[in-house]
Design brief:
It is a single chain. With about 300 residues, the protein is an alpha+beta fold. The protein has two domains: about 180 residues, Sandwich (Jelly Rolls), CATH 2.60.120.10; about 100 residues, Homeodomain-like (Arc Repressor Mutant, subunit A), CATH 1.10.10.60. The chain has ten helices and 13 strands. The strands form three sheets. It has a five-stranded antiparallel β-sheet with strand order 2-9-4-7-13, covered by helices on one side. Strands 6-5-8-3-10 form a five-stranded antiparallel β-sheet, with no helix packed on it. The chain has a three-stranded mixed β-sheet with strand order 1-11-12, with helices on one face. α4 packs across α6. The two termini are about 25 Å apart.
Length: about 300
């Protein structure tokens, strides 16, 4: 199914939340009336759709469309962002999808998946991804949830702007990864940096995990992630630091766990990447509170 040109999109956010769920919580099988991003902050979930099953890890996202039955399930205690949206809407005012979500049976869940394509002017048409890893999206999700939950002045217009920014990020990230299947090639390195953030990984060590020469590994890593391995490692540490700060862990313990030589070095690095000191970040209002509107 072709969705037309990206430039003709006028997206509207219908629902947005940051939430947490214990292991084995299910959504579905179901069919949603709009589109949904489901992004894992921490923990793990799985998606069953058609004959495919995906494991969703921290920093990864699934994109669900309106005609494909699916089953989402947490496999561990999980924190996540959920954003429902329309690609095109005359009005940016949110229309909650809850009343139009339909149950699906096992036969519908096993049906062949609808594929969605969108035209990118000046580029080839893009098939929208179902499961992907995306850098820098977490900040946009947080801003979307904040606007949706607090309903600031003109918040529907702000939501539309943020949704366009998020879709642009998804398009750019996806087009950079569809050339030579780099996700599969760099997966072991990504897993290693996420699981051992305190280790000072060298490019040679990461390349060896994937079975490639360091020079070639650096090229395909940049194609996939849009940044070099060293910068990705910094981003991963900062992401995990944010999660630990929100859990109330001591700053010194966080710095040690993430491989920083001192609190001073950690604080300077954190502020350089986020614009805030660890203490200032911890004092930010919690965007996860969304007026009891949970999925």
């Amino acid at each position: 199914m072709h969705l037309g040109s990206l430039y003709d999109c006028s997206p509207a956010v219908n629902f947005a939340s940051r939430d947490a769920a214990n292991a084995n919580v299910q959504w579905g099988p179901r069919i949603i009336p709009d589109w949904q991003f489901f992004y894992i902050i921490s923990g793990e979930a799985s998606l069953e759709m058609g004959r495919s099953r995906y494991r969703i890890s921290p920093g990864e996202c699934v994109m669900l469309g309106p005609l494909n039955a699916h089953l989402l399930e947490t496999t561990k205690a999980t924190e996540y962002y959920s954003v429902h949206f329309a690609f095109r809407s005359d009005s940016p005012i949110p229309v909650h999808p809850g009343y139009l979500i339909r149950e699906a049976d096992t036969e519908q869940l096993a049906m062949e998946l609808k594929r969605y394509r969108i035209a990118i002017p000046g580029e080839t048409d893009l098939e929208l991804p179902r499961h992907f890893s995306i850098i820098l999206a977490e900040q946009i999700f947080a801003r979307i949830v904040r606007e949706y939950s607090r309903e600031y002045i003109a918040y529907p217009f702000a939501l539309r702007t943020l949704m366009m920014e998020l879709l642009t990020l998804v398009v750019r990230s996806t087009m950079s990864t569809q050339t030579d299947d780099p996700v599969r090639k760099t997966g072991p390195a990504l897993d290693a940096m996420r699981e051992q953030p305190a280790r000072h990984w060298t490019v040679s060590e990461l390349a060896e995990l994937c079975g490639y020469h360091p020079g070639y590994f650096t090229v395909i890593f940049h194609q996939e992630m849009g940044q070099k391995p060293k910068q990705y490692m910094i981003s991963e540490r900062i992401k995990q630091a944010k999660q630990a700060l929100l859990r109330g862990e001591p700053i010194e313990a966080i710095a040690n766990a993430l491989g920083y030589a001192s609190i001073h070095y950690f604080s300077n690095n954190f502020k350089k990447e986020t614009g805030l000191s660890p203490s200032e970040f911890r004092q930010l209002p919690n965007a996860a509170k969304s007026k009891d509107r949970k999925e």
